[in-house]
Amino acid sequence: MTQQNAEVLAALVLAQLVKPGLPIIYCGRLAMMEPRTGLSVWGGVEMGLASAATVQVGHRYGLPVNVYGFSTNAHSLDVQDGFERALNAVLPALAGADELSGIGEMEAGVMGSYAQMVADNEFAGSIYRVRKGIGPDPETVDVVAAAMASTRNFLSQKHTMKWLRGGEVSITKLAERGSWEGWTDSGRTGMVERAQAEAERILRAHQVPPLEAAQERELDALLSAAERELS
What we know:
mainly alpha; globular; three-stranded parallel sheet
């Protein structure tokens, strides 16, 4: 941690000498070593701990921090992949990380997967929900009192739908939340198969929207300015 901090601060000083006031993101990249092979370990929980500590150090200087988050040494979307990504993302997230990297990456960043990107999209939603936490508010207390004094049915309260739509309860598109019978009847597909199917659907059907005219003009202006500066 000390060595990383010294290296980052040295680069920061050089950048500020060249261009004072340049916005800087403190980008921590600590990885462990597998002692039996010497390979880089991105899946161990030590990665999450180091990332969380990096966030705290970077915030001490008032800088936004980007660290590893969705990291694993797994080669496929399996149990190892899931628990390593979860541990290594939630720890720095709770420490206040401004950015978590690693969407779609596998095998310590050597390979990637479209299906993993789809799964990570859902993982990121859950991590964001964890960051929000829970807490009572006056509206919630009033609705509890109203429901208990009448039907005792919270599903009939408009407040319930409002907070469900507001993300108070995370709703999965990939994970299995049904009964054994329903899972069996649906072909016993799981999160991996659903992520793969969704990735294939996106690749097959997604149309990239064209840039707006104002965006095109801005890009043309930037390219023209760069050409003048380099010529």
